Amino acid sequence: MSTTPFWVSAFLDVAPGAFDRGVEFWRGVTGYAVSDPRGERDHFVTLAPPDGDDYLRLQHLADGPGGLHLDLHVENPTIAAEAAVELGAHVLMRHEDGYVVVRSPGGFVFCFVRAQASRGPAAATWPDGHRSRVDQVCLDIAPSAYDVEVAFWPSLTGWDHDPDVSREFARLHPPGSMPLLWLVQRLDDERSPVSAHLDLSTDDHEAEIARHVELGATVVSTHDHWTVLTDPVGTTYCITRRTPVD
Question: What residues make up the domain containing 213?
Answer without folding.
Answer: 124-240
